[in-house]
Amino acid sequence: MSFSVSHLTKKYGNNVVLDDLSFNMDGPGVYALLGTNGAGKTTAIRMMLGMLSRDSGEVLWNGAPLDTTTCNVGYLAEERGLYPKYALMDQLTYFASLRGITGDEAKKRIRYWAERLEVTEYLYPEAAAQTLIGESRPSLLRKRTKPKLADQLSKGNQQKIQLMCALISDPELIILDEPLSGLDPVNTDIFRNIINEQIEKGKYLIMSSHQMATVEEFCTDITILDKSKTVLQGNLNEIKKSYGRVNLHLKTEGDVSAIIGENGALVLSVKENEYRLRVSGEDQASRLLSSLIAGGATVIAFELTEPSLHEIFVRTVGGADEEQ
Amino acid sequence: MAQMKNSKSFEGTGKVFRFTVKQFFKSRANVISFVILLLLALASVPMISLFSSRGGDPMTSLSDLETVYVKNGTGYDELSPASLSQITKQYSDVEFFGADDDFDETELGKKDLLVSVEYNEENNVFNIDVLSSKDSSAGIIAKEQLATIVRDQLNAARFVGSGYGELLNVPEVSVNSGKVEDYGKEGKDFGVSFGVQYGYSIIMMMFCMLSASYIIRSVIEEKSSKLVDLMLVSVKPDSLMAGKILGVMTCVFTMIISFIAAIFLSYFVSGLFMDITPVKEIITSPSFSKLLGGFGFRTVLIVLVSALLGYLTFSAISGIFGATSSSLEEVEPTNTAVVFLILFVYFIALFCGMTGGRVMGTVISLVPLVSVFSAPAQFVLGNIGLPVLILSWVIQAAVALGLLKLCSKVYSGLVLYKGTRLKLRQVFSVLRGKSVS
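Above: the input entities. Below: the structure tokens describing the complete assembly.
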């Protein structure tokens, strides 16, 4: 299987909102679409799914134009939404039926995902009310067993229901637009586990996010968009390698500012003898370590790493802005 | 411009339809409105009967009459004075006499009635008119009994040897009753025209307004709740809109048919326990009789086809208006705009329709939108014939189809649009295939 996007372009009048986006996924994994606000990520996703018309370009799944009739797609939209006044179970059953999952199979899958995402008490309130047997106030029991509506849920729980909608059809291609935004750490972990599980199952995932650490954890390839244009693209490891090992984390017993100054390394931050430094490469780092030892400093931590995706993103987008 | 092709563009319509209907009747607000509507319908007949002054006379039975004059213009022997006398003999001593075209209605006595049965070739309808003198003591029950006997005789006569296949083409029977001095005057024609046009168009107006408000709310709610992105992965905008329109149509039709059925139920049940003469007088009034048209199969068919075309026309307009808005705050202004449009067209149909006349009747039956409120009424009034009515339907169907295509295009172009309500100029640019950010 393969997923390919080529030369996607979208204009509103003279305003270009996506300019010639192209990328390929030749195998399962996670592809990250990164960019600043308004860079064109959501527009690109909507165009891939055929929700927005294209001024040019094509999107292929296994060599054929991508369509919901040819590809089982799961989509978690950036703008979360559910019918606020309809029962949650009705909505899930409806979305499942739209994806061709009906009857007992739909019920089975809803139950599975409700348990995985820990939302059974909202979808099966009668079961949750069993714990209240013996409750002397019938009005409270009635209230607790009433079907839950979307607007009675927190944002995080609504997001879980939406993820259920996206995954209910066991899709081959999963598109997650800002999947972890607004989640607390517990729910973030639940989502991360599910994403990892989908990767292990060999699914194709396209993810858009502002949370670089999250993307870095999952993705193998990235495209960074800035003001509708592709400013950086490729395999994440290779991109990192191209920047070299330039980040140095240093922790010492005493103040070593003078030695660092002599070495010429750039101090990014310092807090209680813990330094974050930028060096030109491994040679400069080795020279600094030698100077520290020669100067009698007690070194607790000395770690030389490649730049993080966050730094690459900031440098790339910042650089692109400066060029303009 | 590359576009994703989808050969199954209406796939999912049935699912959207079922969900729309299910949620409509699950909504507490809708159920309460529905129940109130039914209660009002059930209470209507007893309430009108209780609070209306009785217009009937002391003589309320056929047996209280002395003479009935029969003007038989049909040629059926079953409607001769002798035949009618035979039928009524078992419970009445009333005498039947024939009446010719020279019969002077003003000579009718206090306990006399004139029944005239004529075939109107132009409108393909039998008219049964039951007339009494100015100072008649004959009440509505007596007239109704006589009209029923004559109508049954007429039907028995003309359906002898008639197969089911011919039923579609048989003339309808229109029953009118009144007093001689009111009959045939100019004022009476105006009253009938007004009554029929007003009655039909107000029902259509309510139907269109009710449907429009549901469709607008449904479209804008979906857009404002940011659900559309999720929906569009599984279903195309065309299917989404088609499912909604059909779903709302089913719900509103169900409500209105239930409302009418509840009125009938109220009429028949109330009649068993109380005097409902005032309601009977309303029903047998000339304009009401014409409007009901005896509830013949053809009348029901005409009303259903017209209502369906009218519904589709205004649903498409509502869909277009709904698509141009994206926040719940815009539901009311959008709804108001459509209501004003419906009212504007309704008043044109009403004012032009009640003035009567064949030329005006034909014009308003053929003008798109206005014809929704006027064509069937003008047909019942005899201002247009069946060919003009069918031509009106063809034009209405073409307009409805065009508007539905337009609605589909606007909805598809604006389904993800978020912002203030679009101006007409921007809607046209969407129709030309341009994107609106």
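Note for the figure: The radius of gyration of chain B is 26 Å.
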